[in-house]
Amino acid sequence: MENYQTKNLRVLSHVIAGYMLLALLWWGILLTKQSKQLFETSMELIREREQNSGLDYSIEREEVSKKHRGQRLMIVGEGSVFVIALLIGIWFINRGYTREIEAIRQKRNFLLAITHELKSPLASIGLILETFQKRILQRDQQQKLLDHALKETGRLSDLIENLLLSARLEKSYQLNLVQVDIHVILKRIIGDIQKRFPKTTITMQFSDSNMIGKYDQTGLHSTFYNLIENAAKYSPQTSEISIQTTQEEKSYRIEIRDQGPGIAEEEKRKIFDQFYRSGQEETRNTQGTGIGLFIVHKMVEFHHGKIEVFDNKPKGSIFRITLPNDLK
Questions:
Q1: Is residue 254 a contact partner of residue 261, using CB atoms and an 8 Å limit?
Q2: Which terminus, N or C, of the chain has the lesser number of Cβ atoms within 10 Å?
Q3: Full DSSP string of 199-213
Q4: Is 287 helix (H, G, I), strand (E, B) or coil?
């Protein structure tokens, strides 16, 4: 949301730009009038000289006309350059304002989201501890509460890890390349996600042979986990998520297909920006902080790979990752 001060600055810049355009227009009109008056005066002097001397001054008349045409072209040319430069400046100012407003909105949404994401598991764990403190529970009740506390602790730990990883990716992250089997990572993640979202069906269509290469194991795990978790979060509970892997000559391809609401065409580039989340944080129903896809994009980029987003038919999204299989 555009704050009051930023809105006033935008209005002021538009007023100044409008004033400058009017000033340029008035400058052009005055110069044109002066040039015309000078031309008419010069032509009148030539006519008087012709009448007085009886000589032909057609050459001088042509030179004056040529000079007048040149002055008019100069006025139009310089005025056009100034107008174009001013319009470009206005465009840059508006773009800067728009980016600043969007950055403010994203950071505001991030602060709201991270506050909720941190508060929710902490409140849940605190409530469980209070229950243990105030009540005598049966063994099965204790186990159920302990399982829930561990789940919330894991969620909190994952969130903190993502925050730390996001900060490192911006400045000083170094890939730790080790021999990794992508299928092993995917199967482990699918097992974890299936426990968190038991009603969601996750199908695997893996290539026949292992997909082994030198990658940053922590980075790949975070990449695939964020994508599969997003697919589960944004898809209906009983829907199906499909994970497919394909081996190509010099690369591995991993596709994650969901049946969620899909992603609007104008948002497909924005979703990889840090802190970006569509909609308003106050009315959002899904969990998240807006850094998951930023981590995905950065990590794939660090591995010299490529990530693409497509529409899944009839609904949902397809995230396709292509990684080189000869990374050194």
A1: no
A2: C
A3: TSEEEEE--SS--EE
A4: coil
Per residue in 269-316, pLDDT tens? 888 887 776 644 444 455 556 678 888 999 999 999 999 999 888 889
* 277 Cβ contact partners less than 8 Å away, ≥ 6 residues apart: 106, 109, 110, 113, 284, 288, 289, 290
- d(Cα 38, Cα 65) in Å, to the nearest integer? 11
Gap between the Cα atoms of 247 and 323, Å rounded = 10
Reading the block at residue 203, the tokens are: 């199908």
Per DSSP, helices labelled H in the chain are 4-53, 58-134, 139-171, 182-196, 217-234, 292-302
Q: Output the CATH code of domain 109-171.
A: 1.10.287
pLDDT of res. 283: 40
Segments in the chain below pLDDT 70? 1-10, 102-106, 108-116, 277-290, 327-328
Q: What pLDDT score was predicted for residue 178?
A: 92
Distance in angstroms (rounded) separating the CA atoms of residues 221 and 270: 23
* The dihedral sign for the CA sequence 183, 171, 310, 202: positive
Whole-angstrom distance, CA of residue 274 vs CA of residue 276: 6
Whether pTM exceeds 0.85: no
Q: What is the pLDDT of residues 161-180, one digit of tens each?
A: 777 777 777 777 788 889 99
Q: Angle of helix 58-134 relative to helix 4-53, nearest 10 degrees?
A: 180
**What tokens does 260 get?**
């969620």
What 3-state DSSP class applies to 11?
helix
CATH code for the part of the protein at 177-324: 3.30.565.10
Instruction: Name the nearest CA neighbour of 106 among 263, 265, 279.
Output: 279
Rounded CA-CA distance 1/280 in Å is 10
